[in-house]
Write a structure and sequence with these properties.
Elements (H helix, E strand, L loop, with lengths): L15 H7 L3 H5 L1 E3 L5 E6 L1 E7 L2 E8 L6 E10 L5 E9 L4 H16 L7 H12 L8 E9 L4 E7 L5 E4 L4 E4 L26 E4 L5 E5 L1 H4 L10 H9 L7 H16 L8 E7 L6
Parallel strand pairs: 1-3
Antiparallel strand pairs: 2-5, 3-4, 4-13, 5-6, 6-7, 7-8, 8-11, 9-10, 9-12, 12-13
Helix pairs in contact: 3-4
Length: about 280
């Protein structure tokens, strides 16, 4: 089988290149992809691999709803040139096919332009304006954007209407939801990208301790339904997480997918499903 990196060009049309790439071998799935300086890796195609970012071990599982070769879930990972900052983005884009491919391309280009900047405010405003430019298609996206500074363990994040990630704090051995805890009385902020021009987006900083885990996911996870039509929901997902293994990003991410599959039972998958698991190693040089 041809060894093809399907994540380098997420906006190319579906063709033989991507057909071959989607048929991943077990060896390819086990390979760890190191995110190089200035690299932006990701897309909206089938993916299942481990990744190494500055100060973080990662694992990605992106599965568009069958039989589509590409879906509305878009993920990207990048590293700055000094090798100390990692950025991750997980977005759920409205629309289908070429519309999502175009949005993925704009997202990738914006990330590349801002790869050196710790402050995310300009990046988020730019992404919001980019989606507003496609108003004729009523396109919008929920998104989680995080920047991790490896020398301090600090994570700066913005949540634009996306489902809250799961956060495992190793020191306390507790799972919780990663939230900015915005008071209800505050001005309208953190709406999905492409809804209102000039929307304010908050930046929240948290400290990741050694061994801490983050599980980012799309609503194909939290809105999964069982045979009776009951939805999983974020609350039940958090309860499930308390049984997940925490020794690695791979183990936690796979446990999340397995738990959702057990909940769903015989009910078919009805949406794209993407998980991006990240862990600050217990030791890192």
């Amino acid at each position: 089988m041809e060894n093809v990196d399907y994540s380098l060009n997420p906006c190319m049309p579906f063709d033989t290149h991507n057909a071959v790439a989607s048929q991943m071998t077990a060896k390819e799935a086990l390979a760890v992809r190191r995110i190089a300086c200035q690299e932006v890796r990701g897309g909206n195609y089938l993916a299942d691999y481990s990744a190494e970012l500055p100060g973080l071990a990662g694992w990605v599982s992106c599965h568009p709803l069958h039989p589509s070769p590409r879906g509305g879930d878009v993920y990207f990972m990048s590293a700055c040139s000094a090798g100390v900052m990692a950025r991750v983005v997980l977005a759920d884009v409205s629309g289908h096919g070429a519309e999502v491919d175009t949005a993925a391309g704009r997202l990738r280009d914006s990330l590349r332009q801002h790869v050196e900047r710790w402050d995310q405010s300009t990046l988020i405003r730019e992404l919001n304006e980019n989606f507003l430019q496609c108003a004729e298609n009523s396109q919008f996206a929920t998104a989680f954007v995080g920047s991790y500074y490896s020398t301090s363990g600090e994570l700066l994040f913005t949540n634009a209407g996306h489902v809250p990630p799961l956060w495992y704090r190793a020191a306390a051995r507790e799972w919780s939801l990663l939230s900015d805890q915005t008071p209800l009385s505050r001005e309208i902020v953190d709406l999905p990208l492409g809804v209102i021009a000039g929307t304010a987006y908050t930046q929240t900083a948290v400290q990741l301790g050694p061994g801490d885990l983050l599980l980012l996911y799309t609503d194909g996870i939290s809105e999964a339904s069982d045979e009776t039509g009951a939805r999983l929901g974020v609350g039940r997902l958090l309860s499930m997480a308390r049984t997940f293994p925490t020794e690695s990003a791979v183990a936690a991410g796979k446990a999340l997918l397995a738990a959702v599959a057990r909940f769903r039972g015989t009910a078919p998958t009805s949406d794209d499903v993407t998980v991006l698991a990240l862990q600050r190693p217990a030791t890192w040089n």
